[in-house]
Amino acid sequence: MYVKIHRDKYSEIVAVSDEDLIGKSLDDGKISINISERFYRGDKLNESEAAKILKNAKNVNAIGEESVQLCIKLGLIDKENVLRIKGVPHAQIITT
C-alpha cells in the first residue's frame, strides 16, 4: 500500500491507498473520487510499516480493501462507517 503524509503548519493528513487504485477515478453517481498520484502515492509500505504511521495519525484518508481493513484492524474506524464507492471501501478519520 502507499502512504503519503501531507503536512502544513496547522495539520497533518495521512493518505493511504491500495497500490492497484492509484491513478483511478471512481464515480457511483452520488460520490466521485480521484485517487490521484499527487495525493495518495507516497512511500510503498508493508502493513506493519503503515500501521506505525496510522496509529499516530489524527487525520486519515484511506481507500481500498487493504488500506481500510488495516484501519479497522487498528481500531481507528468501525466498519459501519466505511463508504463504498463503486464497491471500493473509503474512509476518513478526522479528529479535532
What is this structure's SSE topology?
Blueprint: E1 2-7, E2 12-17, E3 25-27, E4 32-34, H1 37-40, E5 43-44, H2 47-55, E6 59-63, H3 65-73, E7 83-85, E8 88-94
Parallel strand pairs: 2-6
Antiparallel strand pairs: 1-2, 1-5, 3-4, 6-8, 7-8
List keywords for this structure.
single chain, 96 residues, alpha+beta, uncharacterized conserved protein from methanopyrus kandleri fold like, six-stranded mixed beta sheet, two-stranded antiparallel sheet, 23% helix
Separation of the first and last Cα atoms: 26 Å
CATH architecture title = 2-Layer Sandwich
Task: State the name of the first-level CATH class.
Answer: Alpha Beta
Mean pLDDT: 96
Output the CATH topology.
uncharacterized conserved protein from methanopyrus kandleri fold like
User: Strand share of the residues?
Assistant: 35-45%
Radius of gyration computed on alpha carbons: 12 Å
The CATH superfamily title:
uncharacterized conserved protein from methanopyrus kandleri domain like
Structural class determined from secondary elements: alpha+beta
- The gross shape turns out to be globular
In total, how many domains does the architecture comprise? Answer: 1
How helical, in percent, are the residues? 10-25%
Number of DSSP E strands: 8
> How are the strands of the biggest sheet laid out side by side?
5-1-2-6-8-7
> How would you sum up the major sheet?
6 strands, mixed
Put simply, the count of helices is: 3
What's the order of the H and E elements?
EEEEHEHEHEE
